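SEQUENCE-TO-STRUCTURE ENTRY
===========================

Subject: a protein chain together with a token-level encoding of how that chain folds.

Sequence line: the amino acid chain in single-letter code, read from start to end.

Question of interest: how does this chain fold, as expressed in backbone structure tokens?
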Amino acid sequence: LTPPDGLFYCYTLLMLMYHTDGSASPNPGPGGYAVILNKQPVALGTEPSGGETTNIRMEGFAIIAALKHAAGKECQVYTDSEFWINVITKWSLAWEANGWKKKGGEIKNLDIVQEVCPLFRSSKATLVWVRGHNGDEDNELADVWANKAREGHRI
């Protein structure tokens, strides 16, 4: 049974859809992240330590900010980071069961991993991968605002 088109349209209007991105330039270097909701930035930030960072770290912080903004509401979080989707939905499960260890060495960005994983698991969020820099208007907007955050812009 397929819902009428209007029903699907109403559902997608009610669903929170976040678009996230992170930036570091050079990489590593100064960084920023952005969370976009309804074509507007709702979270901008940078490395909490204020020091140099990486693109990967900024992507992770963007997902954390989106999950916190959703505050338990059902949502979709769009990211161009396959890395973080894999960390959150696959790899971290084994790492945690192993006492936060993995074969082959240390877990990089463990501080972010240990923050984002419980947030995601207790959320009603779905992570959605989108190809970066490929014409997706919302992903491009998140990229623009992540770069602005790297330059010091805040909400």
User: Anything to note?
Assistant: The radius of gyration is 16 Å. The chain has five helices and five strands.
